[in-house]
């Protein structure tokens, strides 16, 4: 079964950029659709974006379009989230997740495997 490990989080000034990575193990990365979520303290886990198994199709929450970009490199078994023009309200733990299915979904319970998360802190 695939295992996921996020990295790339940290402290960034408002207006800055970060690129998060999610490294997969198990040699079956390309059989999963992948997604990014985030969760701020005291709030529900929030869908950011999803990418198809091949990487040919991407889907974004409306509020995430423009500043965030999801991508994957199946040859490296890695998922990415490019985040630009970061704002204090982007402060959260960011998670990657894997889905064996092909139906587009933003519901956390529909995802089969989760990483441990990486903290993003944005200073003003």
SSE topology sketch:
Layout: E1 3-7, E2 10-13, E3 18-25, E4 33-39, E5 46-51, E6 58-60, E7 68-73, E8 78-83, E9 92-99, E10 113-114, E11 118-123
Parallel strand pairs: 2-11
Antiparallel strand pairs: 1-3, 3-8, 4-5, 4-9, 5-6, 7-8, 9-10, 9-11
Helix content: under 10%
The largest sheet, given as strand count, sense and whether it forms a barrel, is: 7 strands, mixed
Total count of helical runs of at least 4 residues: 0
Number of strands: 11
- Low-confidence runs of at least 5 consecutive residues: none
- Structural shape: globular
Rg from Cα: 13 Å
User: Structural class given helices, strands, pairing?
Assistant: mainly beta
Element pattern in H and E: EEEEEEEEEEE
Hey, roughly how much beta strand do the residues contain?
Answer: over 45%
Distance between the termini: 40 Å
Q: What is the average per-residue confidence, as pLDDT, rounded to a whole number?
A: 95
């Amino acid at each position: 079964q695939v295992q996921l490990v996020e990295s790339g989080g940290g402290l960034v000034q408002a207006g800055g950029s970060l690129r998060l990575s999610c490294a997969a193990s198990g040699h079956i990365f390309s059989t999963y659709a992948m997604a990014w979520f985030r969760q701020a303290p005291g709030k529900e886990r929030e869908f950011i974006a999803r990418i198809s198994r091949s990487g040919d199709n991407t889907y974004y929450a409306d509020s995430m379009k423009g500043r965030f970009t999801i991508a994957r490199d199946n040859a490296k078994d890695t998922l990415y989230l490019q985040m630009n023009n970061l704002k204090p309200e982007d402060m959260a733990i960011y998670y990657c997740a894997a889905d064996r299915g092909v139906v587009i979904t933003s519901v956390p319970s529909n995802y089969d495997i989760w990483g441990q998360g990486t903290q993003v802190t944005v200073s003003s």
